[in-house]
Write a structure and sequence with these properties.
Blueprint (H helix, E strand, L loop, with lengths): L4 E5 L4 H7 L2 H7 L4 E5 L2 H8 L10 H16 L14 H11 L3 H17 L7 H12 L6 H8 L2 H16 L7 E4 L2 E4 L4 H10 L3
Parallel strand pairs: 1-2
Antiparallel strand pairs: 1-3, 3-4
Helix pairs in contact: 5-6, 5-8, 5-9, 6-7, 7-8
Length: 204
């Protein structure tokens, strides 16, 4: 069986949000699965020397126009958050707390956090907000606010996130979304059609 596709994203990335709505369906069409990897672009930017798009002259203004255009094109729910760029630390830690033993639950949480932030415009930075989203999304599976809040502060979970970010940098990840297919890297929401073609043809 082919290896999973690796999907790297930051919860504060609108382009990562749009990719998250399509990546699993795209992979399934080719008989592939997807391993999701939330990362922290703030930490990665210390390596690349970049700044968040919204903090860059001209580029920030373009992004606000572009993401609205993508939402209209795709029909994705979208509300530009006043809190952008969001701090994705709490959400990323909550994800990795679940990921090893409950990968599908972790994906459900990631989708719910993304929807809350970019679908509804909520600030997903506070740990309490992430815990509430997790309890609402996964409560029927026994996940409550107290457990998520504790996990976010767990030193082992903090170390796991740091390790994931370090590993991402070692693999060449520098943006969100960043997709790796059998060692081949693709950066950006607008590369999903290229990923589709790569999977269909086995590369070129």
């Amino acid at each position: 069986m082919s290896d999973p596709i690796d999907f790297y994203f930051d919860f504060g990335s609108p382009y990562g949000y749009f990719a998250s709505l399509r990546i699993d369906e795209l992979a399934a069409k080719h008989g592939r699965t997807v391993t999701w990897h939330p990362v922290l672009l703030g930490a990665i930017f210390k390596v690349t020397g970049m700044k968040p798009n919204l903090e860059q002259p001209l580029r920030g203004e373009y992004l606000t126009q572009d993401v609205g255009r993508i939402a209209r094109l795709t029909g994705a729910p979208f509300t530009f958050p006043d809190s952008a760029p969001a701090n994705g630390v709490a959400a990323s830690r909550a994800f990795y707390w679940l990921a090893d033993e409950h990968p599908e639950q972790a994906k459900l949480l990631a989708r719910a956090v993304y929807h809350a932030h970019f679908g509804e415009g909520q600030d997903i930075g506070p740990a309490d907000t992430v815990a509430e989203i997790a309890a609402k999304t996964l409560g029927s599976l026994g996940i409550d606010c107290a457990a998520v809040t504790a996990a976010i502060q767990d030193p082992a979970v903090k170390d796991r996130l740091r390790s994931e970010v370090d590993d991402a940098v070692e693999r060449g990840v520098f943006g969100s979304p960043f997709i790796i297919v059998d060692g081949e890297p693709f950066w950006g929401w607008d590369r999903l059609d290229m990923v589709d073609r790569w999977l269909a043809t086995g590369g070129w």
